[in-house]
UniProtKB/TrEMBL annotation:
Residues 70-99 have a biased composition (Low complexity). Keywords: Membrane, Transmembrane, Transmembrane helix. GO terms for cellular component: endoplasmic reticulum; membrane. The keyword Membrane applies. It comes from Turnera subulata. Residues 100-118 have a biased composition (Polar residues). It is a multi-pass membrane protein. One of its GO terms (biological process) is membrane organization. Residues 70-120 are annotated as: Disordered. It is found in: Membrane. This is Transmembrane protein 33 homolog.
């Protein structure tokens, strides 16, 4: 009976291991949103664990994913404990007259240290990203509230982009480091490794709007979605034992983490809509030709980058199915320029 119950799970694990993750755009987006230390992201067992979690979420919900092994952490704990015990034996060998009192004092302090709860928060990469993105989320919400004074709203609007740009730049630095050589070839190799990442795309996105005098609150939608995802994931992983989290924040965080695809689709709609808004703004006194050209180059990158290609290509296909029949019926003279634009877009 036990073997019969295990056989379906064994088959599901084999299917999960054989799944083609590299050709699924959802996997690239899923992996780019996982916040783990760089030394763990290169381990094959960690990657396989998150692949099984991805397969459970998107392909087969009946797959049972076991927790990751903590052998490495337990081994490091044993090593540290053995080293601390060996170091505590040295003063007992040196001093024989005061060994009793020294042992009692050291034992009391060691017990106090081991029993003390870790109340302080380590300022690692995840904590810094959480702090910056929580601040960005609050400032962005402040920027879109209609009752906020215009001066404060405009300042919050620009601070939101600046905070997201700093967060993306810090994430690129922690994951990819600095260029190995500060020459043309070294910079070219470095940018080729980061140009298709989500952090680089958001960094250029923020620079496009923070340096422009045109204030489009609509552009804050992708920023809000990104910061909301980061904040929800950090809270889910680090504050599950808090009664305040369980009472007020658990349900919203669970909804955000289970609807990351919906948030990505919303962001892609907003990003493409901004491109058409910038074209319309060219007929106003606030027009900025350079910004419009740069943003459409960024939209082209989003269309081809693996982390955003699935969502953007889906939106563009919907636009094509809606617009092409109208052009064929009412504006057939636009087919030639649209075909030329498509050739440039797909290059």
């Amino acid at each position: 009976m036990g073997e019969e119950r295990e056989d379906p799970q064994k088959i599901k694990r084999i299917a999960a291991a054989a799944y083609d993750y590299e050709n699924d755009p959802r996997w690239a987006d899923y992996w780019s949103n996982i916040l783990i230390p760089p030394h763990l992201s290169s381990r094959s067992d960690v990657v396989d664990h998150f692949k099984r979690k991805f397969y459970q979420r998107y392909i087969d919900p009946d797959l049972v994913v076991e927790a990751m092994s903590t052998a490495g952490s337990s081994q490091s704990t044993k090593t540290s404990s053995s080293s601390s015990s060996s170091s505590s034996e040295q003063p007992r060998q040196r001093s024989t007259t005061t060994s009793g009192s020294a042992t009692r004092n050291s034992g009391t302090s060691a017990t106090g240290r081991s029993n003390a709860p870790p109340t302080n928060v380590r300022w690692d990469r995840q904590t810094i990203q959480f702090s910056v993105n929580a601040w960005v989320f609050v400032v962005a919400v402040l920027a879109i509230i209609p009752i906020v004074p215009g001066n404060l709203s405009n300042r919050a609007y620009r601070l939101s982009f600046m905070g997201t740009a700093c967060s993306s730049l810090y994430s690129l630095y922690t994951l990819y480091g600095k260029p190995r050589a500060w020459n043309l070839q070294g910079l070219q190799v470095y940018f080729q490794s980061i140009i298709a990442t989500k952090d680089f795309i958001y960094f250029i996105y923020c620079l496009t709007f923070v340096t422009s005098h045109l204030c489009l609150k609509f552009a804050l939608i992708p920023i809000l979605c990104r910061s909301l995802e980061h904040v929800a994931k950090f809270l889910r992983r680090n504050f599950t034992g808090s009664s305040l989290y369980r009472k007020y924040l658990e349900d919203p965080c669970v909804w955000v983490e289970s609807n990351t695809t919906t948030l990505s689709i919303l962001s892609s709609h907003a990003e493409i809509g901004l491109g058409f808004l910038l074209i319309i703004s060219l007929f106003s006194w606030q027009r900025n030709i350079i910004q419009t050209f740069m943003y459409w180059q960024l939209l082209k990158l989003m269309y081809h980058a693996p982390v955003t290609a699935g969502y953007h290509q889906s939106v563009w296909s919907k636009i094509g199915r809606t617009v092409n029949p109208l052009i064929d019926r009412y504006c057939p003279f636009l087919k030639s320029p649209i075909t030329a634009a498509q050739r440039w877009w797909l290059r």
